[in-house]
Amino acid sequence: MIDRKTLTVALKQKALELGFAVCGVARAGALENHRPFVESWLQKGFHGPMQYMVRNQEKRIDPRLLVPGAKSLVVVAMNYYPAQHQPEKTKYKVARYAYGTDYHFVIRNRLKKLADFLTELTEDHTYRVFTDSAPVLERAWAEEAGIGKAGKNTCLIIPHKGSFFFLGEMITSADLEADQPFGKDLCGSCLKCMEACPTGAIVGPGVLDAGKCISCLTIELKEEIPAHFRNRTQPWIFGCDICQEVCPHNRHSTAHDIPELKPLDPISFWTNKEWETMTKNIFVKCFKKTHSPLARVSYEKLMDNIRCAADAESNHS
After folding, report:
1. pTM (two decimals)
2. Could you say which of 9, 65, 97, 243 would form a disulfide bridge with 153 (CB–CB 3.0 to 4.6 Å)?
3. Which is the catalytic residue, given 62, 116, 124, 132?
4. Alpha carbon distance 291, 287 (integer Å)
């Protein structure tokens, strides 16, 4: 029988081979220290239109309710910072995480391979894999697994790497060696992200009012962007990177080498006119059939986002 330390080292090495930049382990248990913040955040309505955040609160606090018998959480991070950015010829901006194939597919497939590897070594373990797809407090568990610390903009910051990372988890009954939780504050007195947010969505250090966030307004909100935000979304038509762009930690960002995350052709080559004259058929062909994150919104919603960005620019010119 392979010992716990050897098993954990082998699993982490396999995670790196699968393209993850970092892998950490935490002991499964209830995150009771996070309960007051989560309850207060929801009571204040800071979840905005994301009603699913209200459900499954106990599972959100204790992952053992998701996987009975769970002993460990394996947390991985995948770099998505692109080598190639959108061309200057277009004024319409897409968040960097959405340049390529939907990360849910990319990370889940690799996490399943990691779980299969663990099965080979342990012969039997009960597990589930997640990436932003279940009631899991991802950034809290990333901190517990020693990977990094959530910044004032609520994004997880990985020391010397930055915050342009996807997170994924494997909750498993395997008994792995846990890492030391990450306790160091990485923000200090810096307020760059809070000051840069055009909608004032970061209402306090580490507190996001999602109903004001450009990412939420352009993706999670299914209706048209409300009038009082329409001049404040700037050029963003799907998501937003402003609070990460101004973060000093992201001066360490380096380009990823994940083939599936390479920018799709519309991201790399489209001009303003191609975005503005996009038909529903082109939307389906270029985004739905390519498994782009942009397919999360309807054609009508994306076109409203584009109109909103165009209006915002004309009012600031």
Report:
1. 0.95
2. 243
3. 132
4. 6
